[in-house]
Each structure stands twice: as C-alpha cells, then as structure tokens.
Write a structure and sequence with these properties.
four-stranded antiparallel β-sheet
Length: 141
C-alpha cells in the first residue's frame, strides 16, 4: 500500500485495532469503495494489513477533516448496521452507508430517524454524530 492508495485516509481506533480508513475514490461517487487497513505490530517492522470486515463495528466519517472519525460498536442496537462506513452527504443532507469493501448501492442510505447530525452554528465546525433519540434538533431543524 502506498500513501496515495486511499483518498483522505482517517485513523480510527476500534477496540484494540488502529485502523486507517479511506475511500478509493471521492465518496460522493456511485461505485466508490471504502477500505480499512489495520496496523499490525506483530513483526519488527509494523505494516498495514487490509481488513476484510469490521465485524461488530461501524465507523462514522465527516467530510470535515477536523472532525475525528467515530467508531460505534454494535450499531444494530440503534437501528444501524455493522461493517459499514457512514458518511455525511452534504448534497442530500443524509448519511450514506458504505459496506466495507463493496461499492455503494442506492438502498444504502439509512432512515433519517436513525442517526442525525448536531450543528448549532452557521460557522464551519466539526460535526458530531449522535443517535437521533438523543438529538436536541426538532423536526429536522
């Protein structure tokens, strides 16, 4: 893997794994594929090893590079799905769910009442993702 392999790679900790997660193309493009690589420190020279499945994890990524990726264990408890990378699509105002290692399909956007974004300022800022049941937003405002 070269440093140019993924577009805008992000580091995220899922349990005991340090992952580098990124997309092979711009993630707004149909056909985009997200990939994850785990840092393997079992050898003298650590190396990045491709991860085929996130198992019980989902990862939320904002297109704002200042926002940290958010790993979420067992997202099914709140209506989400494991082995997904959720990205905010500013064009539609919804999260788009990418199954790790697979191209985007039209039915991958979650229901709008499952997860929501909290943002209370007109200034550009990192976006925190919270389950909509805890959101202070009313009627999508």
């Amino acid at each position: 893997m070269t440093k140019w392999h993924l577009c805008n790679p992000r580091l995220v900790v899922c349990g005991d794994m340090l992952l580098m997660v990124g997309c092979r193309k711009d993630f707004h493009v149909i056909g985009s594929v997200f990939e994850a690589y785990r840092l393997d420190t079992s050898t003298e020279l650590a190396k990045w090893v491709k991860v085929e499945r996130l198992e019980k994890w989902a990862i939320f990524i904002s297109n704002d590079s200042r926002a940290q990726p958010l790993p979420w264990m067992n997202p099914e408890r709140l209506g989400g799905r494991s082995n997904r990378v959720y990205c905010y699509d500013s064009g539609s105002g919804h999260l788009v769910a990418f199954e790790l290692g697979k191209p985007l399909h039209g039915d991958d956007a979650p229901k709008s009442d499952v997860f929501s974004f909290s943002c209370y300022s007109s200034m550009v800022q990192p976006i925190w993702i919270v389950p909509s049941m805890f959101s202070l937003c009313c009627d999508g405002q």
